[in-house]
């Protein structure tokens, strides 16, 4: 007896669900269902998928309207819409304003826990109508990045009584100033927030100070304030923030100056910090020295000091403090390092857990290549970046 024609699809679905959890795999699963003609076997596979996906992170269960509701907001969503937990509106076509306004009234949205509106070019009122939808009251993740959101729009969102209780809020690449930062800081509905992404705004020191004083952001574990015109005063204020659970902090491309880390390290609660990005902040060797003396340095897993003029002296400070530390990723791109410092950095026993080392855009030259050739190999090193360092390995 021949097996049903759609048996291979069922096998593929089972294989996908037994593999890695990723947004790519989930997208492949939805593509499989789109190709699969309706049948009892497909309905069984949908039930099977729903049961298996329970253990997945909801952020990975992401789809666009085209993938799960092609005629939205008209008609009915596809049966596999029930598998989706994060709706991505970034590629919405046609009359986007009308789509969003009408979508806000659809009860089918009640299964969603995340909304991604990154780069959606629409009227502010249309997007606010969607975010305020009673059918989205259960979402915990909102991405409204690159949406031309200014302080007034942020205030309208944050002061809305319909604002869901969020765990993740991303407002990167917008037009927020210190006023927007103050509105965020004053929003009591954010008292459960764990991830806040404000990269590429214009908060300045005043905005950073407002966030640091907020009684509603104490649960933050991940914070990005990269490229926000924050200086030494803002950094010092961040050090006094009640963020004892902070695990990841990004301060890339801010206007910090040499010596500004001391005051921050003296005040900051960094017991759980494992990821620190200070790329392009203008820090010098003295700042690296201060960092390596701090108790938090031994617990860092990821450190990025790229495009900071730390030079050989800063690299030597890292090497001196590198015995027994937990670092798995160290990025020192364009830090002004010479071949003379490589021996110290590459000495066996330093950074025993290192998996990734970036030394690209440093003038290492042939002398650096020779040192690298005779250097001991770390057992765990998987990536060594040397582009534009004039070595034979570039």
Topology record:
Blueprint: H1 7-18, H2 23-35, H3 40-52, E1 62-64, H4 65-68, E2 86-88, H5 96-103, E3 114-116, H6 124-131, E4 141-143, H7 151-158, E5 168-170, H8 178-186, E6 195-197, H9 204-213, E7 222-224, H10 232-239, E8 248-250, H11 261-267, E9 275-277, H12 285-293, E10 302-304, H13 311-320, E11 329-331, H14 342-346, E12 356-358, H15 365-374, E13 383-385
Parallel strand pairs: 1-2, 2-3, 3-4, 4-5, 5-6, 6-7, 7-8, 8-9, 9-10, 10-11, 11-12, 12-13
Explain what this protein looks like in three dimensions.
The mean pLDDT is 91. Helix 1 (7-18) runs parallel beside helix 3 and helix 5 (96-103) packs parallel to helix 6 (124-131). The protein has a 13-stranded parallel sheet. It has 394 residues and is an alpha/beta fold. It has helices at 7-18, 23-35, 40-52, 65-68, 96-103, 124-131, 151-158, 178-186, 204-213, 232-239, 261-267, 285-293, 311-320, 342-346, 365-374, and strands at residues 62-64, 86-88, 114-116, 141-143, 168-170, 195-197, 222-224, 248-250, 275-277, 302-304, 329-331, 356-358, 383-385. The protein is built from 15 helices and 13 strands.
* Tally of individual helices: 15
Helical amount = 25-40%
Task: Please list the strands of the largest sheet in the order they lie side by side.
Answer: 1-2-3-4-5-6-7-8-9-10-11-12-13
Oligomeric composition of the shown chains = single chain
Mean pLDDT: 91
Structural class: alpha/beta
Q: Tell me the span between the first and last alpha carbons.
A: 60 Å
- Unreliable stretches, pLDDT < 50, 5 or more residues? none
Query: Mind summarizing the main beta sheet?
Result: 13 strands, parallel
Strand percentage lies at 5-15%
The number of distinct β-strands equals 13
Helix-strand sequence = HHHEHEHEHEHEHEHEHEHEHEHEHEHE
Radius of gyration of CA atoms, rounded to a whole number: 25 Å
Overall spatial form: globular
